[in-house]
Amino acid sequence: MTSVNENSPAIEFTVDDGIGIATMARPRQHNAFTDEFLACIEEITAEVKGRNDIDALILTGADGTFCAGGNVKGMAERKDSGGAPVEDMRERLYGVHDWLQPLRHLNVPVIAAVDGPAYGGGFGLALCADFILASERARFCSAFGRIGLIPDCALLFTLPRMVGMQRAKEIFYTGRPVGAQEAKELGIVMEVHSSADLRAAALTLARRMQQGSRAAFGLTKRIVNQAFDIDAAGLIEMEAAGQAICLSSAYHADAVGRFKAKQPLKFNWEAVEAA
After folding, report:
1. Is the pLDDT of residue 73 over 80?
2. What DSSP state is assigned to residue 76?
3. SS3 for 69?
4. For the chain, is the Cβ count within 10 Å smaller at the N or the C terminus?
């Protein structure tokens, strides 16, 4: 558990030996999507993308809260003040993807360490990560239907691809919380840990990926993220272009040299696991 100062930024960002850690730091407000929160996400994503010394990003929350998504209080205040034209509300939702999609396609591994509730847009935020690790008290909920809304933050795209159409509909329609163990069984969560061990587990996973090729990882992510949406011919074209880039990289040349010289490779998952 990480304690925070409520006067600190909405998301605190630190770098620990090449691992970026973004800690959502408004647990009393359930880390809801405020303008400050969204600006922090944009800034952190841009910084990680622009720095060669950050090899992975961990996204987590402080004091047993991940993220509650949209600011329902703010929605109520806008409604009480007369609301906004449909066109303005639509543009506001498009704006969500101005920060959501760059995070989803970030060219380094992104790990969500979910301790406590990930509701509504917070559920969608977690599914932007490549890997989700959860504490035993984590809960995932598409709460939109409870207030007469449809899922957003890309949940309509990400969740059916993760759990299948029928189960996604059930989760959307009922608005029920999904606990950590069920989320693991459904494939939403990769691992479940105690709250005390969650951060260390996320750091361990991130460090095991540090010696991989950033270019290869980024290209793999971009292609896999589209794998359900393009035909085989399109996928083959992307594969050929991506592989050509990787084959000409300094990382690949170094790996081939090490292989020929019978030297250990920089990135060897089995060796790291054994160690």
Report:
1. no
2. H
3. coil
4. C
Fold of 214-274: Lyase 2-enoyl-coa Hydratase; Chain  A, domain 2 (1.10.12)
- Give yes or no for residue 117 having a pLDDT over 80: yes
Q: How far apart are CA 269 and CA 193, in angstroms?
A: 21
Which whole number is the average pLDDT over 184-191? Answer: 98
| DSSP class per residue in 209-225 | TTTS-HHHHHHHHHHHT
Summarize pLDDT for 33-43 with one digit per residue, the tens.
998 999 999 99
- Beta strand 19-24 with 11-16 is antiparallel
Cα 18 to Cα 58, 61, 112, 197, 208: the distances in Å are 11, 20, 17, 20, 12
Can you give the length of the chain in residues? Answer: 275
High-pLDDT (> 90) share of the chain, %? 77
* 11-208 placed in CATH 3.10.580.10: no
- The tokens for 125 are 């935020």
Task: Give the mean pLDDT of the chain.
Answer: 90
Q: What residues contact residue 137 under an 8 Å CB cut-off, 6+ apart?
A: 64, 115, 116, 180, 195
| Structural element, H or E, at residue 134 | strand 131-135
Within this chain, domains 11-208 and 214-274 share the same CATH topology = no
List the chain domain ranges.
11-208, 214-274
Instruction: Report the distance separating Cα 29 and Cα 26, nearest Å.
Output: 5
Give pLDDT, residue 1.
Answer: 47
225-203-44-179 Cα dihedral, nearest 10 degrees: 60
